[in-house]
Amino acid sequence: MSGPVHAEGRRPRPAPAAQAEAAGTADPPAGPGPLPELPEALLSGYLDAALATLRAANPGELPGPLRQYQTWTPKRLRHPRVLADVRRTLDLDQSFRKAVDERVLDEEEALARLLRAGRHAEALASGETPEAVARVGLALGQEGEAAVQAAVAAAATGRARAEAAAVRSALAGAESELDLARERAEAEAAGARAAREELRAAREELRRVERERRTLADRLEGLERELAQSAAALRAARDEAAATQRRLGGRVAELQARLTESQRSYRALRRSAGQVDPVVAEAVGALVRDLDALRRATGLAEDGGQAGGSRGTGGSWGGPGTGTGHRPERRSPLAVPGGRGADDPETLAAWMGVDGVLVLVDGYNVTKHPLGFPDRGLEDQRTLLLDLCRRLARRFGAEITVVFDGGTVGPLPTRLPLGPVEVVFTDAGRTADDEIVARTNATPPERPVVVVTSDNELRSRVATLGATVTRSPALLGLATAR
Asked: How many Å apart are CA 189 and CA 202, to the nearest integer?
């Protein structure tokens, strides 16, 4: 090539050799030496300037090996083969080398002045990168050798610092991982200790359970022995009860025979005298009551024909000599009016209108019902209930007995005249339920008995005696019924 290669639009700048000649130096400029062996990172900037010069030069001014690359894109120019050709041309072609140097020096004038003055350390300290210093140092040739060496040293120092920082970071990470591993190990050790404690506690619990199991097994054996003894005692009691029932059966048969004989004598006396001696009638009544009591105690069935003959002389409530009506063997509940329920207030009103009916009221069961007077004091509860029963007794003509628990009540705690209502306070140790059952059982079976209670156990007990049962709201509902 006959002349230097310049970038388009740039002012030509004398090469370092021309500057030396202008200064009066006698030595002619030497040819371009090979590029020094530098790290790729430091050489890349100078090669980028060479590629920019390649793209900006006229095709006729380019060295032959590089003309084929002028139209290539910057990305394709970065191919290793292209970079190798450019580097080789820089080593061999002085004109192309000068063009690249001028381009670098034009772009980095301030940095070039510092490097010519030997102030490369100041340039690096001011923030210039080792890559920029190396690029300008290569463009300065021999003047920039010291700057290139300083850039290499700075780059090496930077790499060493980066590696040291990486090592420190890795060391910190390793220490952090070590701390985490230590913490995990301590947590696992604590977990192992806790597991051992739990295992020890579980073993102790297992031994305790085993001791309890043996104790329960011994207790079970004892209970089984007691059960066997109880079963044997029960069988003996049943045998004794059967023997007693047989003896009672014989006694009942004897009494029946005596009763039959008394009835024959009674009928004979009536035929002969037309009336019954009161003493004989009383004896017959006593025999009848004794026979009924024995039958209820033994559970024996009563012969229908004899029953009819034996009570043929009773009155309406079973008294001797008071009438000729038939006395039933067992009390029967009153019928529920059609279309109503047993707990309907109107049903209770109909039952209260039955002749001779006895109404037994479970006092506190009625007053403490949610529809009663549960928020009032006991005396007010009794007063309100007795007032209601007094009005109902006068209205329907029924006999009403109200039974309260309380053997320690003392004088009658009410502010109302009782009239036809009887009030009973049970003795200590006796409940109102037991009193109602006893009065139901003592009432002659031909007399209807109505029990007012919501206590299911009491309802069941009096129902087996043939009583008519209704719940507390039925009585409370009559307080407003007309």
From this structure: 19
